[in-house]
């Protein structure tokens, strides 16, 4: 018989203790806050950032409103809604209530005077609908529409930045957008919030190459703020770039035709409003003449000559030759910014937009105190500022932005006598 093997007794070992939360050293124990943050959906983080930023901005606005003297728009120490509807908000109010003049007002010299044709119908139409549905007056409804679109823009901006940046940088980009020096206008009776919403959506659709959906978005965007010509140029550059890189990034014939069509459509939208003004008033220069009326107090009434206004402004502010030199330096610096590594990481399409809009401003805009507001569509560049992860850097940038809000409110929004710094 075969000898049976006896089982070898294993030496006694102490029982294995499983780690419990109490036994994990504090240094490696995951914090509840961090775990909760990771479990929070992206949209909730954006909403929290937006809400906190609105509290900060509203506080600054109320502080300034409390010391605001009586002016052409409000009594002394106005409430928030009244204070948020000064300056050009009154023109939007006129459009919402009375529409556009069929007969252009003229000055004593026979030139076209300031009038409602300079203001696109998109924002006042949206406010008018809310007024009809809610029964609220203009100032309250305008603030609500503006604030609501600013939240929508923040949500879309995160999605846009996630196409080109990591989650941390994308979320910090949203924070910078919400606390930027011009962010108070996102809750005023101005069209900027609504326009930036449609612009962000258009850029997101462009990056995703969903060309068909761009048609209605561009139509609404182009009737909210005048920049459809700039977007048409960005789309044209996009088409050329895709054609040149088709060997590594296929560009089928159907997509070529569709992308080219939406570029052409954007160009048509860009000239649609001047044509409408011409048809209604009978004056081919109704829109351009109205826009020129706003620069007349600086340089008098002159014809619109593309790419001259910046140099005219430089000479008006700084004289010759310093004004010319400063404008040339600004142009060169802007071009250089587009090739910085942090900006190049934003991708070619966002850089096309920034370059196109910059060129558009150079062609038609006369720089003065509203320049800051007109630069807001360059906000994708915030993605370049948001890339460094150093907490001291990020804290410092946020604090500078909040200080910038107070500076802009003091310089451009608050009215001090015969104020020459319109926002």
From TrEMBL:
It comes from Cryobacterium cryoconiti. PANTHER family: GPI MANNOSYLTRANSFERASE 2. The chain crosses the membrane at residues 42-65, 140-158, 170-191, 211-237, 258-280, 315-340, 352-372, 392-415. GO terms for cellular component: mannosyltransferase complex; membrane. It comes from the Bacteria. Residues 1-29 are annotated as: Disordered. The keyword Zinc-finger does not apply. GO terms for biological process: GPI anchor biosynthetic process. The lineage of its organism: Bacteria, Bacillati, Actinomycetota, Actinomycetes, Micrococcales. Its main location: endoplasmic reticulum. Keywords: Endoplasmic reticulum, Glycosyltransferase, GPI-anchor biosynthesis, Membrane, Transferase, Transmembrane, Transmembrane helix. It is a multi-pass membrane protein. This is Glycosyltransferase RgtA/B/C/D-like domain-containing protein. One of its GO terms (molecular function) is GPI mannosyltransferase activity. It is found in: Endoplasmic reticulum membrane. Pathway: Glycolipid biosynthesis; glycosylphosphatidylinositol-anchor biosynthesis.
């Amino acid at each position: 018989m075969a000898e049976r093997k006896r089982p070898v007794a294993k030496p006694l070992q102490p029982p294995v203790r499983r780690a419990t939360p109490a036994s994990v050293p504090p240094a490696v124990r995951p914090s509840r806050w961090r775990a909760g943050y990771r479990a929070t959906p992206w949209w909730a983080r954006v909403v929290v950032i937006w809400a906190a930023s609105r509290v900060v901005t509203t506080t600054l606005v109320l502080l300034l409103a409390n010391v605001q003297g009586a002016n052409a728009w409000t009594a002394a120490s106005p409430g928030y809604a009244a204070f948020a509807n000064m300056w050009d908000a009154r023109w939007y109010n006129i459009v919402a209530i009375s529409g556009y003049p069929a007969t252009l007002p003229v000055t004593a010299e026979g030139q076209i005077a300031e009038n409602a044709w300079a203001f696109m119908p998109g924002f006042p139409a949206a406010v008018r609908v809310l007024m009809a549905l809610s029964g609220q007056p203009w100032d309250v409804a305008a603030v609500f529409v503006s604030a609501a679109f600013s939240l929508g823009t923040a949500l879309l901006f995160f999605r846009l930045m996630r196409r080109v940046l990591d989650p941390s940088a994308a979320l910090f980009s949203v924070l910078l957008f919400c606390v930027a020096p011009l962010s108070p206008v996102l809750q005023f009776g101005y069209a900027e919030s609504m326009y930036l919403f449609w612009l962000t959506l258009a850029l997101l659709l462009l990056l995703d190459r969903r060309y068909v959906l761009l048609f209605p978005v561009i139509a609404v965007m182009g009737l909210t703020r005048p920049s459809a010509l700039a977007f048409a140029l960005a789309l044209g550059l996009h088409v050329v770039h895709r054609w040149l890189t088709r060997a590594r990034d296929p560009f089928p014939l159907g997509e070529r035709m569709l992308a080219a069509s939406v570029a052409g459509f954007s160009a048509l939208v860009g000239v649609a409003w001047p044509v409408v003004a011409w048809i209604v008033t009978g004056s081919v220069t109704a829109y351009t003449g109205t826009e020129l009326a706003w620069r007349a107090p600086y340089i008098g009434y002159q014809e619109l000559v593309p790419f001259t206004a910046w140099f005219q402004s430089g000479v008006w502010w700084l004289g010759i030759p310093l004004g010319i030199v400063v404008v040339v330096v600004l142009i060169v610096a802007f071009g250089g910014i587009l090739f910085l590594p942090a900006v190049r990481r934003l991708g070619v399409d966002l850089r096309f937009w920034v370059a196109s809009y910059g060129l558009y401003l150079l062609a038609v805009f006369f720089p003065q105190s509203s320049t800051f507001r007109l630069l807001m569509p360059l906000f994708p560049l915030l993605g370049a500022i948001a890339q460094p992860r150093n907490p001291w850097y990020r804290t410092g940038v946020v604090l500078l932005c909040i200080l910038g809000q107070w500076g802009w409110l003091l310089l451009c929004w608050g009215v001090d006598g015969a104020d020459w710094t319109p926002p």
